[in-house]
């Protein structure tokens, strides 16, 4: 492998990074190109921490002979067996010290003192090098503070000095390209976590100007926790956040599984929409989310009761109407949400649940829009004047809807 190959491979990495190739495609293409050009690599691994509510980071693998999982996510490495494994690794050795690389000529008597080295030896590899490229403070996001990689070979002589010189030149280019792709992934993750999937998609597509909105017809969901204020007054402070997290999880997961989009978490309340061209389908999806929530809620309450922890119920208002969906706020602080009389109305409908001792109330507009075969399950609760809403309207519920504290 000569230095013209280095330029060719570096140019390829740059081009693929600019095109938005995935991290695993970059890793696979890089290793294959290096091997084709004469570099003695048989296995490669790259990983980098990320910013994600569940995963600590992502790793990317390549093997010249075996079929391997080219991409996987790993969880927190701060406790338990994961922490012990991390602390035995060559990457931890680099991260906790001052070295930028560590080499083990495992086929020539060097110690097998890092995790996974024994398996690499068993696979017939003779030489191993691990590298770390730290980011400066300005280039660090959360735990994403460096790029790790390792490479091994089965060549009888191991890596040559030339091989290592080539890797030292090319791996930083690979790390930069993978970091660029990872930053885009992080941006999408943050947007989805804080805005919701649909709103995040629109923001990432460029809809970030104040006043940019569209008028849509949607099924609206507003839910809240029963007696949350009383519960929070009587339980220890350290119980409040776990309680909110548990009940938010069942509500949000039910909405997402049914195809809805959560737009706001307002204390213990959830505002969501179900979009679609067919009104019947959006209403059907909202009712499916309500049924899923009840299943999840029963299981959650059983688990919390078994642990002698406080339990509650979720009350829900469902409505349908036209809303404006888009950016509202100042030039430098925007919220991507829905506004319109229908949004105010659905929250008022939900708040009526406590007055009528029901965990579900449905507007007359929503009731009229649902598929005919589902209307038979509805029961009229009565006609009510809603605070802040000009017109009184009939409200409906399902026969099974009763609040349970």
UniProtKB/TrEMBL annotation:
Question: What PROSITE patterns does UniProt report for this protein, alphabetically?
Answer: GUANYLATE_CYCLASE_2
**Species annotation:** Rhizobium esperanzae
Q: Name one GO biological process term.
A: intracellular signal transduction
Q: What class of enzyme is it?
A: lyase
Q: Coiled-coil intervals in this record?
A: none
Pfam families named in the record: Guanylate_cyc (PF00211)
A molecular function annotated in GO for this UniProt entry is: adenylate cyclase activity
UniProt-listed Enzyme Commission number(s):
4.6.1.1
**Keywords linked to the UniProt accession:** Lyase
**Name of the protein described by the UniProt record:** Adenylate cyclase
- Annotated Guanylate cyclase domain ranges read 219-350
**Gene3D superfamilies registered for this protein in UniProt:** Nucleotide cyclase
């Amino acid at each position: 492998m000569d230095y013209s190959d280095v330029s060719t491979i570096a140019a390829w990495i740059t081009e693929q990074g600019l095109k938005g190739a995935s991290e695993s495609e970059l890793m696979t293409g890089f290793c294959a190109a290096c091997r084709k050009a004469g570099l003695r690599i048989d296995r490669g691994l790259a990983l980098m921490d990320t910013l994600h509510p569940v995963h600590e980071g992502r790793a990317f693998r390549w093997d010249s002979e075996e079929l391997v999982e080219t991409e996987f996510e790993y969880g927190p490495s701060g406790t338990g067996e994961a922490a012990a494994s991390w602390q035995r690794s060559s990457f931890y050795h680099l991260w906790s010290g001052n070295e930028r690389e560590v080499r083990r000529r495992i086929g020539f008597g060097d110690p097998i003192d890092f995790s996974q080295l024994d398996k690499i030896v068993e696979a017939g590899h003779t030489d191993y090098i691990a590298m770390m490229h730290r980011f400066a403070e300005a280039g660090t996001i959360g735990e994403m503070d460096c790029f790790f990689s390792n490479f091994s070979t089965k060549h009888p002589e191991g890596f040559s000095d030339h091989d290592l010189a080539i890797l030292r030149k090319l791996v930083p280019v690979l790390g930069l390209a993978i970091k660029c792709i990872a930053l885009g992934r992080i941006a999408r993750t943050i947007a989805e976590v804080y805005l919701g999937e649909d709103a995040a998609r629109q923001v990432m597509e460029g809809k970030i100007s104040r006043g940019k909105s569209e008028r849509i017809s949607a099924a609206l969901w507003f839910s809240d926790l029963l007696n949350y204020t009383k519960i929070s007054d009587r339980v220890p402070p350290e119980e409040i956040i776990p309680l909110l997290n548990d009940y938010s999880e069942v509500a949000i997961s039910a909405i997402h599984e049914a195809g809805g989009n959560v737009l706001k978490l307002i204390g213990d309340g959830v505002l969501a929409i179900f979009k679609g061209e067919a009104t019947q389908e959006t209403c059907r999806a909202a009712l499916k989310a309500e049924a899923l929530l009840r299943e999840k809620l029963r299981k959650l309450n059983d688990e919390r009761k078994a642990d002698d922890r406080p339990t509650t119920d979720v009350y829900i208002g469902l409505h349908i109407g036209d809303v404006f969906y888009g950016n509202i706020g100042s030039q430098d602080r925007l919220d991507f949400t829905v506004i319109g009389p229908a949004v105010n109305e659905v929250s008022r409908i939900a708040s009526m649940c406590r007055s009528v001792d029901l965990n579900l109330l449905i507007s007359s507009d929503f009731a009229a829009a649902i598929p005919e075969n589902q209307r038979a399950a509805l029961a009229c609760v009565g006609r009510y004047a809603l605070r802040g809403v000009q017109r009184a309207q009939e409200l409906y519920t399902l026969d099974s809807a009763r609040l349970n504290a």
